[in-house]
Task: structure prediction
Amino acid sequence: MGRIWDVVRRIATGDNSPPPDLDATLTQLRARTPAPVFWLLGKTQSGKTSITRFLTGADDAVIGSGYRPCTKTSRKFQFPTPDAPLMEFLDTRGVDEPGYDPAEDVAAFDPVAHVVVVTAKATDFAQGNVRAGLEPIRRANPSRPVILCVTCLNEAIPRQPHPPYGKWEEYEPLRRAIEEHTRAFAGLFDVCVPIDLTRPDDGFPEPNYGGEALKAALLASLPGAYRQTLVQLKEATDALKDVHLRHAVPVILGYASMAASAGAVPVPFLDLLIIPGIQSRMVTHLAAMYGQPMTPERYKEVAASLGAGLVARQAVREITKLIPYVGSVAGAAVAWASTYALGRAFCYYYQAVCEGHVPDTQTLRRVYHEQYSAAEGTWRSDQVKRTP
Result:
């Protein structure tokens, strides 16, 4: 309870900063689950985003908004969040432009990148600038693995199914394309992995064609600890979720306690003005903890999808506060449960966004009502224990 009331004190004084030990906890977790760093090198539209999407499961919108500039010609994407990344992707964007100078990128990325992934479309043989950019990167660290990915294989064999993986002999245009790229990058890569990572709605029987071969090549290239992170991505993500939730719940309880106090005021309709403000501030605080922006419009949209506002309004309309003591207890219970459930539902929402997807309204509503029922039961149990 001491920690809960400490949260209440922080809220009352306007301190919306994350708990002081959150950074330390995340730092410890990062040390136990090292994040592999992949340096992506290739022309625009050569399949770099498809590789990132395949390895993380995130969609293009999340990947695009997640990238942040880090040099004049490159950017960084930390998945699932910059606060607690499991993987990092360094995308060199200027490599296909004449006069690209890789010196700045080499200085920034050479100390941190574990694997260089070069992408070249199967039918695009004008790779001179990419090779010129790769050469100094290879010289800077000859022992660092370089994987050459020949991408968009379907463009070399239009209107034909993919061959069994590795069986290129009967598909002459595809075989020649792969051989041409291996010749063009000779001496600059360690393994060539032809891939065709398409979307399910593109109509190919295997949308992740060559994906497992790519993952196997990456696993073979990474040091042991970083390899384990890639293998156990889901388990590591769940662990990060637990860390955030462990710090978020005391905050939720602090706001729920404030809401319960407001709900216990024996004046009808007063809490209708106070509780929404408490809940809005709680959601903003949680958003900062998860590293996710929350606009007033988005807050109203998600809260409305939960039906949270209906619960509080229904309680107020019943005007139970006109009944001495009983009304105050009922008002406090509704305020406590609805605020706690809203906080937990938003934690579920924030974590889903961190993992690359937005939960649908039905799922959010189910989470909210499950948490509301649990909070209501806890409140009743506490009240029984407090009764002499």
